[in-house]
Amino acid sequence: MSLLTISGSPSLNSRSGRLLDHAAARLRKLGHVTERLPVRELPAEALLHARFDHPQIVEASAQVARATGVVIATPVYKAAYSGLLKSFLDLLPQDGLKGKVVLPLATGGSKAHLLALDYALRPVLAALGARYVLASVYATDAEIGSDSDGGVLLSPELDLRLEEGIAHLDETLARLQVPFFGAASDEGAGRFVRGNAPLQLARA
Amino acid sequence: MSLLTISGSPSLNSRSGRLLDHAAARLRKLGHVTERLPVRELPAEALLHARFDHPQIVEASAQVARATGVVIATPVYKAAYSGLLKSFLDLLPQDGLKGKVVLPLATGGSKAHLLALDYALRPVLAALGARYVLASVYATDAEIGSDSDGGVLLSPELDLRLEEGIAHLDETLARLQVPFFGAASDEGAGRFVRGNAPLQLARA
Amino acid sequence: MSLLTISGSPSLNSRSGRLLDHAAARLRKLGHVTERLPVRELPAEALLHARFDHPQIVEASAQVARATGVVIATPVYKAAYSGLLKSFLDLLPQDGLKGKVVLPLATGGSKAHLLALDYALRPVLAALGARYVLASVYATDAEIGSDSDGGVLLSPELDLRLEEGIAHLDETLARLQVPFFGAASDEGAGRFVRGNAPLQLARA
Amino acid sequence: MSLLTISGSPSLNSRSGRLLDHAAARLRKLGHVTERLPVRELPAEALLHARFDHPQIVEASAQVARATGVVIATPVYKAAYSGLLKSFLDLLPQDGLKGKVVLPLATGGSKAHLLALDYALRPVLAALGARYVLASVYATDAEIGSDSDGGVLLSPELDLRLEEGIAHLDETLARLQVPFFGAASDEGAGRFVRGNAPLQLARA
Predict the structure, then answer these.
(1) CATH number of the domain that A90 lies in?
(2) C10 partner at 20 to 30 Å CA-CA among A185, B183, C164, D195?
(3) Which of C76, C102, C70, C69 is nearest to C16 (CA)?
(4) Residue D196 φ/ψ, nearest 5 degrees
(5) Is the ipTM of this complex over 0.85?
(6) What are phi and psi of C11, to 5 degrees?
(7) What is the domain range of residue B132?
């Protein structure tokens, strides 16, 4: 299972981008393979004029398509996600997040924009068919600093919230790795299938 | 694992309530145990004046607390969930849906209110700490009829959407039944534990 | 022109209710006549079970119908307006706020719920056909205190925001008092009508 | 008073853009002067990378700043406004719509996305400080056609809704042209000032 991080900040060295890279590093420590998709590196013309067939857009869409987990980070501008992020989401197929687990992250100037993720981004992710959109992690700018080596430093509270978000994502992905046989399955209905690899989970 | 259905319609014989009962019947066929919580049967005074300690409110909260899966149905009024439903959700603890899987259903006069579930209800369920809020199922009034015995009849399209929602809920609950050991677990890290009941799932 | 204040708090002595009464007092000082509609005083059964024809509901709806300006106050619960407030709004006709100017107020435990008014309440007010929904005024609980006589004390910042909201409402209502003749009007098209009472405003 | 139309469609010949141009033509017939701002014609790099100081961005911001009325049109993508439109709104100052009257228009594939305007765009416009955001006009693609000369043809229902939106905008702008003296004004308080040009309106 692959993980993709999508950064929606128009800035090169944004707080939301650094928070996202930090989350990716933690996920790799848990054994996940992560890919990066900084939307700002996509060709601007293609993005804004909806050129679905531009090679870099095609490749970015393929990155999304092959990921099972997606961590999306955006700054909050004008009480919502960035236009840059939305420009990319606009280019995905209608069910472009189908079957995927999404962890949303956001940064904002103050706590006053905390609800932007849940009210603005969550419905868009639902419209894209996401399987699960996990509890979002919101950080104020003041909660994200730098250490002497230029590494990211999080406030203890943010560190804990991010840790919970990552653990939730990690657990959810692990549970999805177990093949599931629904009610229609001859062999699996009504019981757990055990003892042979890969592990199989049937409807209880 | 128990399932709870919460009906938020102020009417005794509402379309959203009938859709909900139908969903519950399907879930029971899959082996689930379901409880009912029609909010309209709670004492109105206690509900509206936030009397958290009224015995029936205490019992209703306990019903929510012990459920792992919750199916919530509401009519769409004025572009959002019913005030009746929200009155009950207001009485739950801040994290009253923590760890729970929620399937939202709604009915409305036309397709024009489809987004009310995702834009209005979903953020409230997120605020209540729901683990997963599944893709919502929206039905227009015209899609819900009656057969000659008074049973509910769904349009084929609605029937399919409801079936998908129920299958998603069923699968999600089945996956949650498998104990999960995260990275910190000595015995489970990095592998699947097999061969003994209950089945245990460790982070891959 | 009459003004109506609608309080959506389930509590008798709520911060949102006190903020609302304070706003009403200021509006009266500006010469407005204000009526009160504390939703919690309406019969709970009638409210929750959608008994449109209950005399007190009929009277409350009539209060709304005859108001040109409406100030609505709600506590933020679970990232949205109170269920009590919504229960009342659910009982209004589809275009129950048609032609009206609405000033929304809300109180919450922290700044983190500031967006609830704009994301949750504003679309509902739009669905009810409000002519103008003014910029909302949000207050944290800590910004609303009491003086030694039990009167309300606002933080200076809140006082200023409320003053701006009230001035905006006052100005908007004043502008609406001037009869307007649109393009179709024989006498008024293209000019301002002056010099005779009542003042008449024609499309410029 | 000047009017600005902002088109947020990434397509050159979009339905939302044609609806917007049609609205502008009607407004000109009512005597208004209109300017155009098709966001897709702004330099994509500057837009996406938040280059506030690019000459064309500076000029576009100035267009917004000098307009009293703004008509904004967007297609509905993924249950919300276009990323292109939001990219431009992100570049405006925090109170970039302060004092302005905004009429939102949108087009979508079906009625199912009608609420996107009120739930997604309205809060963003509120965050930008708009004085009044008028009732939005939503059109399905099927309601917008072409006549034999390539002109736009609207369904009768859409035509009526657009007419109402335009009349509301026109009236609102006319009312704003009348100077208003609030309570603090020495000369105007408590009465209408009449009989001298320009007409002056004092708080009643």
Answers:
(1) 3.40.50.360
(2) C164
(3) C76
(4) -130, 145
(5) yes
(6) -95, 150
(7) 2-199
Residue B204 lies in a domain: no
Per the domain annotation, does B118 fall within a domain? yes
The answer to the question of residue A204 being in a domain is no
Tell me the shortest Cα–Cα distance from B108 to chain D, in angstroms: 11
Rounded to 5°, the CA angle A43-A73-C108 comes to: 135
CA-based nearest residue to A83, from A91, A74, A92: A74
- Which tens digit of pLDDT belongs to each residue from B139-148? 999 999 988 8
A178 lies within 8 A of chain B by CB: yes
Name the residue among A79, A113, A118 with its Cβ closest to that of C79.
A118
A110 pLDDT exceeds 50? Answer: yes
Q: Phi/psi class of residue B4: alpha, beta or left (left: φ > 0; alpha: ψ in -120 to 50)?
A: beta
Q: What is the mean pLDDT of residues C60-81?
A: 98
Q: Which residue of B has its CA nearest to D114?
A: B112
Q: Can you state the percent helix, strand and coil of chain C, rounding each to 5?
A: 40, 25, 35
How buried is A149 (Cβ within 10 angstroms: 0-12 exposed, 13-18 middle, 19+ buried)? exposed
In a domain? residue B31: yes
A72: nearest Cα among A95, A49, A59, A89: A89
- Chain mean position to CA C26: 14
**Taking Cα atoms as reference points, which of B166, B160, B56, B159 lies closest to residue B101?**
B166
Which residues are D140's β-sheet partners? D108
Report pLDDT for A204: 45
Beta carbons of A110 and C110 less than 8 Å apart? no
The helix or strand, by DSSP H or E, that contains position C68, with its residue range, turns out to be strand C67-75
Cis (ω within 30 of 0) for the bond into B198? yes
State how many domains chain B has: 1
pTM of the predicted structure, to 2 decimals: 0.92
- How many angstroms separate the CA atoms of B85 and B69, rounded? 17
The reply to whether A120 touches chain C by the CB within 8 Å rule is yes
Centre a 10 Å sphere on the Cβ of residue C151 and count the other Cβ atoms it contains: 12
Mean pLDDT in chain B? 90
